[in-house]
Structures are given as structure tokens and as C-alpha cells.
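pls ignore typos typing on phone
arginine + seq
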Amino acid sequence: MSQSDSSQYTWAGRFSEPMSDLVKRYTASVNFDRRMWRQDIRASVAHATMLARQGIISAADLTDIERGMAQVVREIEEDRFVWSLDLEDVHLNIEKRLTTLVGDAGKRLHTGRSRNDQVATDIRLYLRDAIDTLLPLLRKFQNALLDLAEKEAATPLPGFTHLQVAQPVTFGHHLLAYFEMMQRDAERFTDCRRRTNRLPLGAAALAGTTYPIDRHFVAQMLGFEGVCENSLDAVSDRDFAIEFCAASALLMMHVSRLSEELVLWMNPRFGFIRIADRFCTGSSIMPQKKNPDVPELARGKTGRVYGHLTALLTLMKGQPLAYNKDNQEDKEPLFDAIDTVSDTLRIFAEMIAGITVNPEKMREALSQGFATATDLADYLTRQGLPFRDAHEAVGRAVRRAEELGVDLAQLSLAELQHFAPTVDEDVFAVLTVDGSLAARKHLGGTAPEQVLAAIARARRA
Ligand code: ARG
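k done
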């Protein structure tokens, strides 16, 4: 195995043998944790400011650190910063460069701090920022659902149970079901943000530090809502990342259900909707194909986010207190969950906005499954028949209609009276799709007026 000179490592003092290249590559995280560079620098400057305020380092040291960090920021932003695998992770890369730029002040930055509380702080800041970008994307997706629901507030669609025509619903009502799911998803992310937004710095390696630090000052400077109250817990638990992945898994589950419906609705057998061509792809062999790739991929990516949740739960379950290197494995699943969810929300907001609806196809599908049978049973019940008897009578009427190859509304009055003698002319209004929809006018019902009311409430919320 090839080996590299160990003297360059900040921690090399007690080592007698250099690290092999394979071990170096195996243990380094800089290739994936460098994306937290902004958070790392923000947290370091806050830490240094506190050290100077408490008289632990000098004001001149703080000035040097601030100046050096400003330079590091420029170098990274302009892509001039040289990231080195030898320096293991984002923390040591930045600290080393700072020290090259400003000398001893750079070496004093790590006073009263460990990479253990440093990395825990960085991830929390990173996740908090990510949730803050993600929530507006979720809102945009929800708004796209509301806009389409408003346009289609009165458009009848077959509501399914067991994927068989059940009762008429409005397409707007159907879309609002997804709005509600996303609403709970947003609550979960907001809730997760609160628990993420606590400061680990001050815990140092695991036991705290001997310097007279001021953790509340650092917390305030970084916008944390509080500090982690136990140093061992602060450096070791990643439950906030697990919670985020759990919320993401639920969100993706909802997106996946919607995707499945979009795929079905686009199928020519249904033909209910079209999504814009830019969200579809063709086949390399079958010239006629237009495939719903985006919803299919979202459905597929759901599994990947579930995987990240399982990975993080498993990562934590066997770890004794406090920090263990296992925790370095928290980042890739978390980052990928963030990326997957953000991209999915972005693309869905656009895709929903580009949906065109084919109401004739929806009505046609509705005319085939006796969707208003329950309405007829309700009609008979209103006339005084016990519901179970009404159910039975309508069942027999459906059988007759099926034999004749017609819908319930196409049976003659005499025929209907054969099954239920009390039926009158006014039954035909009940048997229409629009009558069925309009009758469900209570809170949470599918009547167009209720859909519009729900949209108005949602827009206010
Ligand atoms: N790269 C490490 C991580 O992601 C930083 C903390 C390293 N601490 C340590 N004691 N080796 O967790």
C-alpha cells in the first residue's frame, strides 16, 4: 500500500506510522461534506467572536480570523480553493487554509471546540437552511394544485374505490386531497426545523470545555432557538436528520401516489389529462410512444428516500455515547434526501401547472360504473325505506340495467318502480352526475361550492 507523510495532519503528534492511501480515501469526507462550507465558516466566525468577547483569544486574533475567512469565502466562491483529501474533511481544509493565510490566529480558532461539536453544528445549520429553501417549494407545488383545482372545481371525475368507479367527485376535490397531504408535510418540516435549530457548539469533543465560553451568545449569533443542553447528546445524536428523512419519506409517499394517478390518467384508456410534452420522453424504438417519465421517476425516487431513512436509523441504533466516526455516514443520505425532495417539488410545481384536462373522457368513464347508485339508495331512504332495503332494491335495479346495457338514469320510470314502487319523476335529477355532486355540499364534501370554499380557506392559510 502506498503511504503518505503523516506529519501534515493536524492530529499527527502521537502517530508513529503514516496512513495508507486506501485508509485515507476510506475515512475522508471532504468530497461530500464540502458542501457545508458556508455553514462551517459562519459557525467558526461566531465561535471566534465569542472567544474574543470572553477574553479567550485577543481582539487582534478575531480580526485576523475574520479577514482570513473572508478571503477563504472568496476563494471558494471563485472556485480557486484547493480541496485536499489529505485534509480529510471540510473543517480541516478550511482551518488549514485560514492558518496559511493568517498564521497563529488561525491556530487559535479551535480553542474550546472539537470537530465533533463543529460538525454537529454545521449539519444542523445546513439542514435548517435546506428546510428554509424547501418550504417555499412545497408552497409553490401546493399553489399549483390550488390553481388547477379552482379551474376544475366543477369538473366531474369518477371517484374510485378498489380502482373501480365508485361515486362521482369533482376533479378539484380530488386535487385538494393532495393539497391536504402536502399541508401536513409542511407542518412536519416546520416542526423538524424547530428541533434541528439548537446549538451543539460548546460540547467540544463530548464533555464540554474548560474555557469560560458563552453558548447563548453563539446560539444567538447563529440564529439558533436554543442550545443542546447535554454535551454528550449534542455531539452524538442525529435524530433531527432522521426526522427530516422521515418527513421526506412521507412527502415522497404522497408524491408517489399522485404520480401513480398521473400515469393512469395519462394512459389513453383513461385519457383524463395530458401533461406537457416537456415532462415526457419518447421511446428509442417505438415511434408512437410518449412516456410519463417524470411521475414515474418520482415514484421510483420515493424508494431511494425510504432507503435514506432506513440507513440513518440503522446508523444510529448501535452507537454507544458519544461521538463515533459512524456519524460521518449521516451526510450522504441526508444530502441526497434534501436534493431529491427539492428537485421533485420544483418539477412537480411546474408539471401540475402544465396539466390539461379532458372533461369528456372523465364524464364518459363516469357513465359506465353506475356511479350514482348510492344516490338512488339515499333517495329511497329519504322516502322512508330503511337504508339496507334501499341498498337491496338499487342492487337489483343495477343488475337489470347491466342486463340491458344501460346506465341507471336510462331505465324508464316504470322499470325503476318495478324495484322500488315509491320512485317518482324527480328521481332522474338525483341520478345525474351533477345532481350527485351538488348534493354533497357539507364541509369536506365534493360539491363544487364546497371545493371553492376549501380553496378560499387554503389560500388564506
Ligand atoms: N468528518 C467528521 C464527521 O463527519 C468530522 C468529525 C470528526 N471527528 C472525529 N473525532 N474524527 O463526523
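The pocket of arginine is lined by residues 29, 33, 89, 115-116, 119, 323, 325, 327-328 (CB under 6 Å). The chain has three domains: 17-111, 116-157+169-363, 368-460. more later
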